[in-house]
Specification:
Blueprint: E1 19-21, H1 24-34, H2 39-48, H3 55-62, E2 73-75, H4 76-85, H5 90-95
Antiparallel strand pairs: 1-2
């Protein structure tokens, strides 16, 4: 395996993370966590926490492939608030997500 294809897991203090690369897999995880709750209800809950995330934006996060101009990254603040409303935290959400950062060796 060449060095260009190697990936390493690293721990990084979240104060250094401005945004998170977003893809279909992460969107599906949000949809599962939302369960039967409406995106409008989730949006209202985010507003109560001081960071309104629109229902349209939540739809875009859940199904990024359906939107021509979907975000390729999501701010750490937005995902943290959304996960709080969905009764989970960033550690648990990414524990099962792809948490590998590509770095040159």
């Amino acid at each position: 395996m060449s060095n260009a294809n190697r990936q390493k897991k690293i721990m990084l203090d979240t104060k250094y993370v401005a945004s998170i690369y977003w893809d279909k897999e992460l969107g599906e995880r949000i949809k599962v966590l939302r369960g039967g709750r409406s995106v409008r209800a989730i949006s209202e809950k985010t507003a109560e926490l001081g960071e309104r995330i629109s229902h349209q934006y939540i739809h875009m996060l859940e199904e990024p492939e359906r939107y021509e101009h979907s975000a390729s990254t999501v701010s750490f603040q937005k995902i943290s608030v959304l996960l709080k409303v969905l009764d989970t935290n960033i550690e648990d959400f990414f524990d099962i997500a792809i948490t590998v950062v590509s770095i040159a060796s």
